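Design review, sub-item: ligand-bound model
Attendees: FS, YL, KQ
YL presented the inputs for the adenosine monophosphate complex:
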Amino acid sequence: MAGKIWVLTEVLEGNVVPVGLELLTKARSMGGTVEALVFSPEADKVTATLGEYGATTVYAASDPAYNEVLLGGPAADAIAELAAQQSPDVILIGATYTGRDIAGRLAVKLDAPIIANGLDVSANGDISVQTAIFGATQVVDTKFEGGKTGIAVIRAKSFAAEPGGGAAPTVVPITTPVSDQHRKARVKERVVAKSEGPTLEDAPIVISGGRGLQDPSNFDLLQQVAQLVGGAVGASRAVVDAGWVPYAMQVGQTGKTVKPTVYIACGISGAMQHTVGMKGAKNIVAINKDAEAPIFKLADLGVVGDVLKILPQLIEALKAKKG
Amino acid sequence: MNVVVCVKQVPDPNSAGQLDPATKTLRREGVEVVLDPGDEYGIEAGLQLADASGGQVTVVSMGPDKALDAIRKALAMGAAKGVLISDPSLAGSDALTTAKVLAAAIKREPFDLVIAATESTDGYTGTVPQMIAELLGVPAVTFAKHIEADGGTLKVNRQTEAGYDVVEADLPAVLTVTAGVNEPRYPSLKGIMAAKSKPVDRLTVADLGIGDVAPGQTITNIQPAEERKAGEVVEDDGTGAQRIVDYLASLKVI
Ligand SMILES: Cc1cc2nc3c(=O)[nH]c(=O)nc-3n(C[C@H](O)[C@H](O)[C@H](O)COP(=O)(O)OP(=O)(O)OC[C@H]3O[C@@H](n4cnc5c(N)ncnc54)[C@H](O)[C@@H]3O)c2cc1C
Ligand SMILES: Nc1ncnc2c1ncn2[C@@H]1O[C@H](COP(=O)(O)O)[C@@H](O)[C@H]1O
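KQ shared the predicted structure:
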């Protein structure tokens, strides 16, 4: 039994950010009361979904001012106030940019322990969070102690999101105002980088490139493959740091975690900081000219060869197959 | 603008790290330690902002005596002075304790901006800077991929899941920088020489007046992660591409 579990759910363009639904699905399985927290002017649009995924109560704050400020401060203020009355056992927060902003401030306000970078959470008497260290070669279990509310920051894609057929939740409005203090940082503009095709997180096939692609222009080959197979393009940090492609494409410890049906690594050596973000893929294909490259240790199919030769052939073969 | 940059010394990210099975903290003996590569972006950002406005950079670190080397590197890059908080009672500190110690050290002198990296390479909790902001009562502008300053206002492109937000913040504030926000300079020979005589304040917990901090978490188990098994590796003899297509077809994804 886990007592009372709170799940922070973020909203982006009227939809719940997937990690929120993943955490609700997990929370449902922990045996306890599952309640969601949502901070968005569009909160009313998502309460039904949150119920369906297991929240029996949704604490909803829909101050229009949220559009103009960074959420970290105001959300932490409101959650701390609520937690003082309700004493949840644990608050699950997705490891998103804003999730981390809220979690850090909340830990200070509640003077509560925080475990970040979680991959799993369990409740057997104590609530414990599993994290991975050293490029996910070791897994560590850490339990909350001291009877305070624990804050667990969990990486996206740690659990599958499945609706549980829950009824419409009780909606409790949160009215904690946005303090002047938090208006000292103002969001002037939200720039959305539109990309075609599925997102990295949702694509059934992810094809990623690394330094072995030699030149930024060769990412075009990956785009062509992605387009042909309905996939998305990812990258290693080496090429992100070199400015070849935007950070949003980075897969790995400091980038995204992806779990596609197939991950195709092109000219990527397979450093553990990269593989930690993709080794959950169901199948892995690697192309690398170095037969000793560590990526081959986890590839289901490895092709030792020149990626710049193989990719154009792959594009032709895929086109031929499509007819 | 006077800038404080939080810097951490970490085990060399290029060597495999180890936990001490007895104490369950990072094993530090026999492991090369370096200034966290992520913090070099923070130092560079601080130097650029301070230089443009006629201020100076102070680097603050919590860590063992040896962390002085990390501070010296920051001084060699151009920071004016350092503060190192070392105390046996701080070994294995959690994120909240770390933030309390750093915030208390930062508060000792007036500052306009505190810069940290988005996450440390070893601890990797990625929440210490937001905690510092809360403790100092200032805005936290996080995940910066582009920074401009105009008098008392900071203008930052903040990484988001969807793209980026353009954020303006009044100073003082906490700022976290992502890798790639700038190109960190290398310490010059002159810088390295000058660093030797730059002042470093050495503090203990007692100097900061922080009460006892009881950790609210305990490691209960450490075990090796499940490993994936290697599959088939073939040499490309001109049929490599076709092999991949056949494989994808066998998985029914194309
Ligand atoms: C704290 C920290 C966090 C990190 N986070 C991440 C992260 O989130 N994601 C990440 O990816 N990395 C991360 N890294 C960096 C990581 O350690 C590696 O440096 C990086 O993944 C290497 O990228 P790469 O494989 O593209 O480059 P390299 O390691 O340089 O590998 C290039 C590969 O291309 C092959 N190659 C070259 N030419 C060809 C050719 N013509 N055809 C086929 N193959 C070719 C080479 O054999 C080589 O294996 C992190 C590092 C640290 C310290
Ligand atoms: N012990 C420390 N000393 C100085 N700065 C630190 C320390 N720990 C964390 N920081 C700063 O906070 C950032 C995020 O760290 P973390 O939250 O531990 O991932 C780091 O990149 C540093 O800039």
